[in-house]
Amino acid sequence: MKFIATPIPGVIRIALEPQIDARGSFARTYCEATFRAQGLEPVGIQCNISVNAKRGTLRGLHYQAAPAEEAKLVRCVRGRLFDVAVDLRPESPAFRRWLGVELDAEAGEALYIPRGCAHGFLTLADDTAVYYQMGAEYVAGLARGVRWNDPAFGISWPFAPLHLSERDSTFPDFKT
User: Fold this and answer.
1) What one-character-per-residue DSSP string does the chain give?
2) Of 56, 47, 63, whose CA–CA distance to 79 is shortest?
3) Averaged pLDDT score across all residues of the chain
4) Has residue 174 been placed in a domain?
5) What is the pLDDT of residues 58-81, one digit of tens each?
6) How far from the centroid of its chain's Cα atoms is residue 120's Cα?
7) pLDDT by residue (tens digit) across 46-62?
8) How far apart (Å, rounded) are the C-alpha atoms in residues 60 and 122?
9) Which residues contact 128 (CB under 8 A, 6 or more apart)?
10) Which one of 7, 46, 124, 140 is most buried, by most CB atoms within 10 A?
11) Rg for the chain (alpha carbons), in Å?
12) Catalytic residue, candidates 30, 131, 132, 138
């Protein structure tokens, strides 16, 4: 695995380093010891998959409040998506800044998102599946969100979402 820093502290792109031979390829996608050595919180508590039938599906921007804040490792396992992390940590030099990266199944890159950041994505292809590894269990009562188009962040999505849940479209404006 190759760990690539981004402008948001703690948000890391992770590229695969496949071993290729006549049979195909093999690549390590996660190793707790390697993550710890990189200073990253392990993300082996819970795994989830999001299957999205249509291009233009937006999910997010989600996070969990304390004490159930969660780090995430997000990987596209089918299709393509625009993945977004928003820094909601008031003490961070990147507070309220966002990062968007394209993830696709073929490249296999992942995005590590630390505690205190909101996460969302927009599918760029039909039949896109997203696999999450989480650093904490989901606690429904601590689930929170910020609106995908909140002017406090000014996220430049590739295009306006075509499919969006009522919950995700009605999150309130972000308040510091």
Assistant:
1) -EEEE-SSTT-EEEE---EEETTEEE-----HHHHHHTTPPP--SEEEEEEE-STTEEEEEEEE-TTS---EEEEEEESEEEEEEEE--TTSTTTT-EEEEEEETTT--EEEE-TTEEEEEEESSSSEEEEEEESS---GGGEEE--TT-TTT----SS--SEE-HHHHTPPPP--
2) 56
3) 96
4) no
5) 999 999 999 999 999 999 999 999
6) 6
7) 999 999 999 999 999 99
8) 9
9) 51, 52, 55, 57, 76, 78, 79, 80, 81
10) 124
11) 16
12) 132
Mean pLDDT, rounded, for 101-107: 95
Amino acid at 142: L
Q: What is the CATH number of the domain that holds 62?
A: 2.60.120.10
Indicate if 62 belongs to the active site.
Answer: yes
Q: Which residue has the tokens 């590894």?
A: 133
Total domain count for the chain? 1
Instruction: Answer whether residue 137 is part of any domain.
Output: yes
Over the range 148-160, which residues count as b (16 or more CB within 10 Å of their CB) and which as e?
A: bbbeebebeeeee
Q: Catalytic residue among 30, 62, 131, 163, which?
A: 62
Domain span holding position 66: 2-19+26-169
Quickly state the pLDDT bin for 175 (edges 50, 70, 90): confident
Alpha-carbon span 107 to 76, nearest angstrom: 9
Q: What is the pLDDT, as a whole number, of residue 85? A: 98
Name the residue with tokens 């992390």: 85
